[in-house]
């Protein structure tokens, strides 16, 4: 178990804290047993393509706190994702019937002279001006490779400005070069929130924290009849709401890749119990997850009744989908925990998962509880998954593999991937909302979308006919893991 | 005075990765931290293209490359890229990490050049400049390190011109704009190296850059650094039209300037002038058709405009809106961080925006400040904003019409649409009044 240390400004990166890795090839079962016996070793690639970085992931959680602003202490290019998240923010406003409002994001615009003379002065002036302009309830400062290497004292500056301005001015340390896991950025954002925003509990409430992105509010329907209220964090929260998340009765993870750190931190520091079962994907996964909810919220009977009712409702429908989908071959590429979720959904529908390229692997989460290992749950419940590749969005490996195995369907959870399936004539599906596949209803939702996608073969066939291929013929004939580790021999494909 | 930026509308020096992506079958190789490339694609990318987006090779520099230097890692990624990516030209670009640490990328690139690989490098650490400036740095690097080795010049081909205008991807409409400019210049009888996008021949075209009779810069300041470089290197003269020509009046002025510079024979000149006359007549036949609508539509049309654009578009659109559509200028904001040396010239252009009128221009990279100023203006009549996706609420709040021309666009899907030239002018009219008319129930 990683010990939460709120005294340090920076959270330890996942590589060190959790022993996470970005390179592996083998089966899911092999990965799980390696990870659980502490034998996991990182494998690096001698050739690589562009990845994400921590600062983007930190920003995605901080950028939609409705009454805070974010200052990126960086050259202007690092704020290239500002509008992307502004767009997401505004779509979320529509879905929540909120009035339109623009994301207030700033760059300190580091220039050459700043890399020589340092830029804390510039940062301080920016914070003051932003405060003057908007009077926010908190200001977050996200760092960058440039600010990190030149050694600006962001923590000291933030602390001084907190005193001066009377609002939390919070450093969030998310320099891209520090970690190969861009998900470390989630931890950075949450560390800064738990450390500087969340207050010790005054009372216990009936709220249940839902750590999520900006997904649909499916948990209201579950929790309200049980007498509890869902508190969706962090996007679309206010600073006031975040101050009180220590008072909740429990914390639910939609995706532990996202929320591992804050879930464990709230439990360790403030005693808010975290639901440890893997998120509810697939029937068995949903049963386990609900039973733990019943136990933690002391609603065992209601939950048992719900499970019986829901099984009766969905199982016949799932069986009908299985008739249509059984044996279809699928390939999955996604972030870690959500990848495990998609695999569960596909196996529940009795589809064959031919393989997966999952962006990283956390052998254990911050709660230190092996119960939370969703991949282990998949293997236990549905059997081993062959060709399980840990691969941080390396499109060249993906294209090589897809070109070999030609699945009936590719499912991706991040941008820049589905296009490769489609260019090869493979129907490809991207679903952004984690909640879409959650719970019993989620299986039906997914099944329907998969059928629609499989039915769209005209489009991909036509696209494949007219697509260009930037990969060499030589590469497409090589072992997909040629550049991984020490040219490990694999005869998997 | 702080130089903060709210609402970024351009990228950093590394944004020139898109300059490379815009050359057919060229690929950038980034020696940078992870995340840089994706953030650039987020702001200005338009899908994968041939080898952009998720295909772009990158060293994803980490702690080890910062502490011990990243040269070995770069060699390893170049080795891989040469084998895995099927490209005609590889361009090594550095990010902040490498430039601060001081990796010797020139030496590394030279090793591969000596082995005969088509590879060049440029220092584009994000903090060094904007992508408007580094666009020139990258183009000049390709000319010096690649083109020149095949063609050291000395074979001027009459009628061949190189065009430097839209900055690919930073101008969302670059493809359409460059297509129209190429069409028009070919109409004059010239052979046109457009260099980027769908109508470029790729590196075979780049190799003829030194052979041009003259170069054309159709833009306010980006591109001058390339044209000056080519003048010095190959003695190629150039003509500079100081903004993007949009609509009849400005496009004819642009083409007229080119004709004057081209040293045409009298028959060539008369053919070229014939082409302009025909194009202009076509353009104005449409304007004539719209005149009744412009004059008689009773329910409100925009009467004044703001531009929140880079210098190319700010001047181009201001002249167009005033002269062709009779919409009057409010304050104009130039958001491209124009280098100091060009600002006086731009101010002068705005001071003489038409024979009757001058207009106020501000150089401002802080969008929040621009919004505050515009919100405080008296709302005397219906306004038009030519700006970016950031202006959506501003436009709604002051009941203005908004045409999205500056990055980030996001609310439009742009394929071959362009606003340059005669065709671009007509398209701009359609797009502006489409929006205006669509506000009625």
3D structure, described in words:
The complex is a heterodimer of chains A (about 500) and B (about 450). With about 500 residues, chain A is an alpha/beta fold. Chain A folds into three domains: about 50-180, Nitrogenase molybdenum iron protein domain (Rossmann fold, 3-Layer(aba) Sandwich), CATH 3.40.50.1980; about 205-290, Rossmann fold (3-Layer(aba) Sandwich); about 315-475, Rossmann fold, CATH 3.40.50.1980. Helix content of chain A is about 45%, strand content about 10%. Chain A is built from 21 helices and 13 strands. In chain A, the strands form three sheets. Chain A has a six-stranded mixed sheet with strand order 1-11-10-9-12-13, with helices on both faces. A four-stranded parallel sheet of chain A has the order 3-2-4-5, with helices on both faces. Chain A has a three-stranded parallel sheet with strand order 7-6-8. By secondary structure, chain B is an alpha/beta fold. Chain B has three domains: about 15-150, Nitrogenase molybdenum iron protein domain (Rossmann fold), CATH 3.40.50.1980; about 155-275, 3-Layer(aba) Sandwich (Rossmann fold), CATH 3.40.50.1980; about 285-440, Rossmann fold (3-Layer(aba) Sandwich). Chain B is built from 17 helices and 13 strands. Chain B has helices at about 15-20, 35-45, 65-70, 70-85, 95-100, 105-115, 130-150, 175-185, 205, 225-235, 245-260, 265-295, 310-325, 340-350, 365-375, 390-395, 420-440, and strands spanning about 5, 25-30, 90-95, 120, 155-165, 190-195, 210-220, 240, 305-310, 330-335, 360-365, 385, 400-405. Chain B is globular. Strand 3 of chain A pairs antiparallel with strand 1 (about 5) of chain B, so a sheet runs across the interface.
């Amino acid at each position: 178990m990683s010990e939460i240390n709120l005294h340090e400004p920076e959270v330890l990166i996942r590589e060190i804290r959790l022993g996470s890795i970005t390179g592996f090839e083998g089966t899911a079962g092999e990965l799980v047993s390696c990870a659980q016996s502490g034998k996991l070793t990182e494998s690096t690639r001698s050739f690589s393509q562009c990845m994400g970085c921590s600062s983007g992931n930190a920003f995605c959680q901080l950028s939609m706190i409705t009454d805070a602003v974010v200052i990126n202490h960086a050259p202007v290019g690092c704020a290239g994702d500002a509008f992307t998240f502004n767009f997401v923010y505004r779509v979320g406003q529509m879905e929540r019937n909120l009035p339109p409002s623009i994301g207030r994001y700033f760059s300190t615009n580091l220039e050459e002279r700043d890399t020589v003379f340092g830029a804390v002065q510039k940062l301080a002036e920016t914070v003051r001006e932003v405060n003057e302009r908007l009077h926010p309830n908190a200001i977050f400062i996200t760092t960058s490779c440039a600010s990190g290497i030149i050694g600006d004292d962001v923590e000291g500056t933030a602390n001084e400005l907190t005193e001066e301005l009377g609002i939390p001015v919070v450093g969030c340390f998310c320099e891209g070069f520090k970690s190969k896991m861009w998900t470390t950025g989630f931890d950075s954002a949450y560390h800064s929130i738990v450390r500087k925003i969340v207050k010790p509990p005054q009372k216990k409430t009936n709220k249940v924290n839902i750590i999520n992105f900006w997904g649909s509010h499916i948990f209201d329907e579950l929790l309200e009849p049980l007498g509890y209220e869902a508190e969706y964090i962090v996007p679309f929260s206010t600073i006031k709401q975040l101050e009180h998340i220590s008072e909740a009765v429990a914390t639910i993870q939609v995706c532990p890749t996202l929320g591992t750190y804050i879930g464990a931190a709230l439990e360790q520091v403030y005693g808010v119990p975290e639901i440890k079962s893997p998120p509810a994907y697939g029937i068995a996964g949903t049963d386990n997850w609900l039973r733990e909810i019943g136990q933690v919220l002391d609603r065992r009977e209601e939950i048992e009744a719900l499970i019986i009712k829901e099984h009766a409702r969905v199982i016949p429908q799932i069986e009908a989908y299985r008739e249509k989908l059984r044996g279809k071959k699928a390939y999955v590429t996604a972030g870690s925990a959500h990848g495990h979720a998609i695999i569960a959904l596909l196996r529940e529908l009795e589809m064959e998962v031919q393989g997966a390229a999952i962006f990283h692997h956390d052998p254990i989460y911050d709660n230190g509880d092996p119960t939370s290992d969703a991949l282990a749950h998949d293997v236990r419940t549905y059997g081993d998954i062959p060709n399980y590749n840990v691969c941080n969005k390396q499109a060249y490996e993906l294209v090589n593999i897809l070109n070999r195995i030609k699945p009936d369907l590719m499912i991706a959870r991040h941008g820049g991937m589905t296009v490769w399936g489609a260019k090869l004539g493979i129907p490809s599906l991207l679903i952004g909302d984690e909640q879409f596949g959650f719970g019993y209803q989620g299986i039906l939702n997914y099944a329907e979308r998969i059928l629609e996608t499989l039915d769209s073969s005209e489009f991909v066939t036509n696209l494949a006919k007219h697509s260009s291929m930037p990969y060499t013929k030589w590469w497409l004939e090589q072992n997909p893991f040629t550049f991984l580790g020490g040219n490990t021999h694999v005869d998997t494909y | 005075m702080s130089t903060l930026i709210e609402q970024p509308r351009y990228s950093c020096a590394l944004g020139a990765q898109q300059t490379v992506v815009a050359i057919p079958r060229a690929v950038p190789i980034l020696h940078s931290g992870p995340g840089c490339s994706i953030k650039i694609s987020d702001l200005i990318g338009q899908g994968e293209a041939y080898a952009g987006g998720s295909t772009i090779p990158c060293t994803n520099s980490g702690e080890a490359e910062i502490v011990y230097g990243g040269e070995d890692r770069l060699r390893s990624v170049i080795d891989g890229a040469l084998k895995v990516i099927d490209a005609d030209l590889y361009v090594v670009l550095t990010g902040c990490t490498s430039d601060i640490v001081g990796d010797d990328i020139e030496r590394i690139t030279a090793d591969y050049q000596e082995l005969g690989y088509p590879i060049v490098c440029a220092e584009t650490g994000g903090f060094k400049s904007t992508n408007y400036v580094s666009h020139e740095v990258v183009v000049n690097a390709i000319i010096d390190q690649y083109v020149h080795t095949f063609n050291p010049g000395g074979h001027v081909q009459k009628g061949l011109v190189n065009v430097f205008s839209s900055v690919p991807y930073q101008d969302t409409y670059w493809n359409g704009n460059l297509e129209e400019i190429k069409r028009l210049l070919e109409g004059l009888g010239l052979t046109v190296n457009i260099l980027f996008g769908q109508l470029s021949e790729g590196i075979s075209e780049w190799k003829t850059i030194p052979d041009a009779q003259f170069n054309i810069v159709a833009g306010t300041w980006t591109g001058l650094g390339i044209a000056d470089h080519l003048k010095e290197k190959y003695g190629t003269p150039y003509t500079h039209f100081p903004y993007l020509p949009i609509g009849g009046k400005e496009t004819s002025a642009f083409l007229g300037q080119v004709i004057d510079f081209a040293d045409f024979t009298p028959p060539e000149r008369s053919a070229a002038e014939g082409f302009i006359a025909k194009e202009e007549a076509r353009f104005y036949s449409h304007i004539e058709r719209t005149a009744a609508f412009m004059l008689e539509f009773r329910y409100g049309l925009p009467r004044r405009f703001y531009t929140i654009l880079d210098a190319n578009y700010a001047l181009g659109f201001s002249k167009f809106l005033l002269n062709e559509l009779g919409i009057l200028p409010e304050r104009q904001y130039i958001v491209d961080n124009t280098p100091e040396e060009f600002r006086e010239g731009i101010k002068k252009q705005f001071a003489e925006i038409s024979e009757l009128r001058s207009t106020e221009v501000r150089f401002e990279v802080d969008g929040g400040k621009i919004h505050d100023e515009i919100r405080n203006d008296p709302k005397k009549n219906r306004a038009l904003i030519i700006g970016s996706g950031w202006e959506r609420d501003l436009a709604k709040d002051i009941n203005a019409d908004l045409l999205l021309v500056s990055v980030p666009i996001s609310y439009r899907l742009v394929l071959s649409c362009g606003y340059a030239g005669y065709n671009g002018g007509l398209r701009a009219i359609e797009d502006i009044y489409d929006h205006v008319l669509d506000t009625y129930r």
